[in-house]
Amino acid sequence: MSAAVSTGRQTGRVPAILLSFVFAVVVLGPVVWALATSFKTEVEAVAVPPTLWPSAATLENYFKVFRDQSFARDFWNSVIYAVGAVAVALLVGIPAGYAAARFSFKGKRALMLVILATSMVPGVALLVPTYYLLDTLGLLNSGIVVTIILAARIIPQTVWFIANFVEAVPIEIEDSAFMDGANRFQIIWNLILPLIRPGIAAVATIGIVTTWNDYITVAVFAPEVAKRTLQVALVNQVFDAIGISWSYMMAFVVIASMPVILMFGLVQKWFISGLTAGAVKG
Amino acid sequence: MSASPTQAAITSPSAGLLGDAPDASSQIRFSWAPYLWFAPAIVILFLVTLYPTFFVTWLSFQKTRYYELTGFVGLANYAEVFGSSAFWDTVFVSLAYVVGSLAGALVLGMAAALVLNNAGPTGTVLRVFILFPWTLSMSVVGSIWLWLLNPSFGPIPYLMHVAGIEPGLMLGDPSLALPLIIVVTAWWSFPYVMVMATAAMQSIPKELYEAVEIDGGGAFIKFRYVTLTQILPTLGSTALTLSIMYLTLMTLIIVMTGGGPLGSTTTLSFEAFRGTVQAVNIGPTAVVSIVVLLINVALGVIYTRLTGRVTG
């Protein structure tokens, strides 16, 4: 426990606990309200005065979302882009990260600086040139192109994290495996990857959340209905403000966040270690 | 690549033992191999990030009409952008947005970290729940708050009404839209500050607090001279991470206000987005993009220096 607690501040704990709940209410209140709204009828959602809990809870809004003819495709695109981008990032990031940690060669520092530099280029600054290039090459509305663009956003952090994880594995383990006749591929696959699995899980979790939540990349480079994701479909509904049904939209919000919520609940530990890795300087 | 085979070696002290090949041939092999390990990552980053970066720079010197290029114009696009008052309004909105959101997130995040750190097991459990909104997408956060702030049916205007405050147009009010977006941004991002500050606080050696106690220092002294001093580097890098994020954030603004009303929430990044999709004249949009790019790189370089990620 923290030093403050162990030094006779037990009396200070009660206000701290109360204040903690105040923070929790401020943060979760809006989320709970959205959740409650998703179970209300369209009429009750806009009732004055507003009701906190639905008087007659209904799943109708959720059924309406599922019945929407483009929902399955939007959902599938979201899954494919997120899983695909993370898979690509790991596929190219693991070799690069391993090489960065284990090999010493001319120009390594320059290569790592280039990778770092690309992480500083914001996606927003590349909207115009990328749109122009894709338009010229006839590559707009391509699922593969969107996946690779999303992957490129998470490749720099993937390389850096993998390099750090591999560096933490004692080289002696690899040396003895070499002497036993293992080749480098076997060593990485059988030895290194199992050892750094928690690190890879953290990188993958952050990567999936980041790409699942992306709106801009898909909205600008693959605006076609058949290529859009749940995030794009959600925002399009906001734009369609005249026919908007708030209870329907909140159900959509819940469903569009569900995978991320599940993942957050299941691998919350990896999520937090991914967030703080390399960023805390003690 | 093959210029200096002898310089390519393996960092391992036992490089000579690697593989069953003789030393000489393994050294030659590893003279090009390391580059191949990097090649796929570099190819993707070149195509998606580096080339478009060069291209947008080139684009900013071209005369454009819609998406057509009609020749080199030198600095004309720059002159047009920097000479327009709308651009400077956008710069001001960006600055106000970043500074306002940062102030809110840092103060709330620090307060939450301190409070939860002193709340024992309750704090540990609540910390997880409080981090939750950070995982939500900007489109989701925007939609939720659009609903909460809706002047006709939203619960927040209703509560304001009950409290005797006339809510007015909320996000439709040019003087209220930006402050409201700042509040939402701070709400969404302060849990990140909280997690970072907590991690840093928990790595402070207890001896430092004990030393203050021996000298008779109270809670404030402990906070000011131990906690704050020790977590300052982490707070600094967190603030930079958030500044970069706020500067480049578009989706929340797209959803909540669409840059309006009357341009009151048009930031540089939103302008770059609008220029891309409206595509009336992409030359000036390229200039705005480069401004965002340069600020971002500057912040990124400071971040790298501060966290010592690249030391050599």
Helix fraction of chain B?
Answer: 55-70%
Q: How large is the count of helical segments of chain A?
A: 15
Reading side by side through the largest sheet of chain B, how are the strands ordered? 2-3
* Shape summary of chain A: globular
| Number of self-contained structural domains of chain A | 2
CATH secondary-structure class of the largest domain in chain B: Mainly Alpha
The percentage helix of chain A is: over 70%
CATH C-level of the largest domain in chain A: Mainly Alpha
Distance between the termini of chain B: 21 Å
Helix tally of chain B equals: 12
Subunit organisation of the chains: heterodimer
The structural domain count of chain B equals 2
Count of β-strands of chain B: 3
Shape of chain B: globular
Total number of strands of chain A = 1
**CATH fold label of the largest domain in chain A:** MetI-like fold
Task: Give an overview of the whole structure.
The complex is a heterodimer of chains A (about 280) and B (about 300). Chain A contains 15 helices and one strand, in the order H-H-H-H-H-E-H-H-H-H-H-H-H-H-H-H. Chain A has about 280 residues and is mainly alpha-helical. Chain A folds into two domains: about 55 residues, no CATH class; about 170 residues, MetI-like (MetI-like fold). Chain A starts with a helix and ends in a 6-residue tail after the last helix. Chain B has two domains: about 55 residues, no CATH class; about 230 residues, MetI-like fold. Chain B has a two-stranded antiparallel ribbon. Chain B starts with 8 loop residues before the first strand and ends in a 5-residue tail after the last helix. At the A-B interface, helix 1, helix 2, helix 5, strand 1 and helix 6 of A face strand 1, helix 1, helix 3, helix 4 and helix 5 of B.
